[in-house]
């Protein structure tokens, strides 16, 4: 997908000017606030309500799929149609993209905390740039700077962790960095779908496939047998709606008013919001060296996202 090529369902975004552009920036920023704050809410569910992270992933996906399906049936039935030749593509994107991204992302939140989970996953745009370099494609000195910044930032993030994260099993850190690579795969592989179908079509089918996969891991009758109270089901519904569908609508409303590159850069504010909300509500904080590392990772994300703005559109499905 070229730098400013959006889904066929969206009008081509021109450089935003005036009031329309300001509204677009606020809409994209509001979407990042929902993504970041619901990550903090998910961490609360894992840590304080003792719900397994993969159960939360399953319920979040199922609720979002159901609500989106009803909406499309009523308002946009044409968006439900896909070509038979693309069924394999959606299966691959749903399983190795959405299911893997969300499973590894929420698992990392449960083990290492909100800030580290999001910051590590924000290495994905830089991984895409690094992969292009390995393949012999010259990407420019700005992208070289992004890779170096990401490497230095990651070293500071990992080197300055608190005692809980420091003594975390190597497996947990492996899954954390795997989530960044899987997210990078999703960003690249989702381009084909977003060029052929409206974003909501890609969202519906990949979420449905991922939900079925995680339902096989934790069958619905086991979830029902857990006897979760009503207030916890209310939180599950909040996560299903406000970690996906609401920011989905806000983000694409903003994207209609802004170039994809600008929206992508604004979206990199998500880790900052996540760090603040986790500190306020969960008392999770990064150490001074980690804050420096966070700044370097965000700088790398901004630089890389200017080159690969499709990462911002893909972020809708990562949630």
Task: List the defining traits of the structure above.
single chain, 15 helices, 0% strand, 319 residues, mainly alpha, disordered N terminus, globular
Write up this protein.
This protein has helices at 18-48, 53-75, 87-112, 114-121, 124-134, 141-159, 163-166, 170-196, 199-217, 220-225, 230-255, 260-267, 270-282, 288-307, 310-318. 78% of the residues lie in helices and 0% in strands. The radius of gyration is 19 Å and the shape is globular. α1 (18-48) runs antiparallel to α11 and α4 runs antiparallel to α13 (270-282). The chain contains 15 helices and no strands. It has one domain (54-318). The chain has 319 residues and is mainly α.
Quickly count the domains. 1
pLDDT below 50 for ≥5 consecutive residues: which ranges?
Answer: 1-16
Query: What profile does the largest beta sheet have?
Result: none
Total helical elements: 15
SSE succession: HHHHHHHHHHHHHHH
Question: Termini distance?
Answer: 21 Å
Number of strands: 0
* Average pLDDT: 81
The amount of helix comes to over 70%
Structural class: mainly alpha
Provide the β-strand percentage band.
under 5%
Q: In brief, what are we looking at here?
A:
It is built from 15 helices and no strands.
In terms of topology, how is this protein built?
Blueprint: H1 18-48, H2 53-75, H3 87-112, H4 114-121, H5 124-134, H6 141-159, H7 163-166, H8 170-196, H9 199-217, H10 220-225, H11 230-255, H12 260-267, H13 270-282, H14 288-307, H15 310-318
Helix pairs in contact: 1-11, 1-12, 1-13, 2-3, 2-9, 2-11, 3-4, 3-8, 3-9, 4-13, 5-6, 5-8, 5-14, 6-14, 8-15, 11-15, 12-14, 12-15
């Amino acid at each position: 997908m070229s730098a400013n090529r959006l889904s066929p369902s969206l009008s081509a975004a021109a450089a935003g000017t005036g009031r329309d552009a300001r509204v677009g920036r606020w809409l994209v920023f509001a979407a990042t606030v929902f993504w970041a704050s619901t990550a903090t809410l998910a961490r609360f569910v894992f840590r304080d309500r003792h719900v397994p992270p993969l159960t939360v992933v399953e319920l979040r996906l199922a609720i979002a799929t159901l609500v989106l399906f009803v909406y499309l049936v009523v308002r946009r039935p044409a968006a439900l149609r896909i070509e038979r030749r693309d069924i394999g593509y959606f299966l691959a994107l749903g399983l190795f993209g959405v299911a893997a991204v969300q499973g590894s992302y929420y698992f990392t939140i449960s083990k290492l905390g909100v800030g580290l989970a999001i910051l590590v996953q924000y290495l994905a745009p830089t991984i895409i740039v690094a992969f292009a370099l390995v393949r012999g494609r010259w990407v420019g000195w700005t992208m070289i700077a992004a890779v170096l910044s990401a490497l230095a930032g990651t070293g500071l993030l990992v080197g300055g962790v608190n005692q809980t994260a420091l003594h975390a099993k190597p497996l947990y850190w492996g899954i954390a960095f795997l989530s960044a690579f899987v997210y990078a795969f999703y960003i690249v592989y989702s381009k084909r779908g977003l060029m052929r179908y409206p974003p909501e079509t890609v969202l519906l089918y990949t979420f449905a496939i991922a939900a079925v996969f995680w339902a096989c891991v934790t069958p619905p009758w086991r979830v029902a047998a857990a006897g979760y109270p009503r207030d916890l089901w209310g939180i599950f519904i909040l996560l299903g709606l406000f970690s996906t569908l609401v920011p989905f609508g806000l983000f694409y409303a903003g994207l209609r008013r802004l170039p994809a590159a600008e929206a992508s850069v604004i979206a990199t504010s998500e880790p900052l919001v996540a760090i603040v909300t986790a500190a306020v509500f969960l008392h999770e904080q990064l150490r001074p060296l980690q804050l420096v590392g966070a700044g370097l990772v965000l700088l790398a994300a901004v630089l890389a996202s200017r080159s690969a703005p499709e990462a911002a559109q893909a972020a809708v499905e990562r949630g």
